[in-house]
Each structure stands twice: as structure tokens, then as C-alpha cells.
Design a protein that fits this description.
The protein is mostly helical. It has three helices and no strands.
Amino acid sequence: MKETLENIDRITARGGPELQQILVNIKSITEDVKQMMASQGGKDGQSGELRQTIERVNRASASLESALGHIDSVAGRIDRGEGTIGS
């Protein structure tokens, strides 16, 4: 059990900063695409597809942020010795 918790801690410690950078990149890309859409004004018929892609990226970003929040919460409770795993 202790080894499993240590593995989880290592994974979250290593993956957290990388996941945060991915979120920053997704937000930047989303803003760039929004600007491209605004400059096109929907002239070529592809704006619908582009809008759907942006919506999917936004949902994925929100889901990833939520997952990171849950990981941080669980890791914090484990570190504090809370719950059945931390006992």
C-alpha cells in the first residue's frame, strides 16, 4: 500500500507541471483560433467546423483542469494522512 501511494505521489509530482503547461498551450491555441475565426468572418464555410473544434478543445481543457484539481486534492489528503489510504 505504501509503495502504491509513493508511486501515485511521484506520478503527480512529475506530471503536474507538464499538465499545467499543456493547459497553457491549449488556452493559447484556442485564443489564436478564435482570432482567426473573427478575421475570416465565416466566409469560407469552414467556420462551423472550426467552432466545433474550439468547443471540443474548451471542453477537453475544462476536463483536464478538473482532473488536475482532483489529483491535487487526493494527493493533499494522502500527504496529510487523511482517509482510509492515509491512515
